């Protein structure tokens, strides 16, 4: 069951990780911009 879940969540987890990376990058960029301002 755990293996099936891992296989099923593979692509979704990857997409979620990518979105998290993009979101973290955006948040860091916003904080840097606010610091500059």
Written description of the protein model:
InterPro entries: Ribosomal_uL13_sf. It comes from Anaplasma phagocytophilum str. ApNP. The chain is 95% helix and 0% strand. With 37 residues, the protein is mainly α. The termini are far apart. The relative contact order is 0.09. The mean pLDDT is 77.
Query: Measured on Cα atoms, how large is the radius of gyration?
Result: 16 Å
Number of strands: 0
Structural class, please? Answer: mainly alpha
Largest beta-sheet details = none
Cα distance spanning the termini: 51 Å
Please indicate the percent range of residues in DSSP E strands (runs of 2 or more): under 5%
Number of alpha- plus pi-helical segments: 1
Poorly predicted runs are none
Order of helices and strands: H
Quick one: overall form?
Answer: rod-shaped
Q: Percent helix among the residues?
A: over 70%
Q: If you average the pLDDT, what whole number results?
A: 77
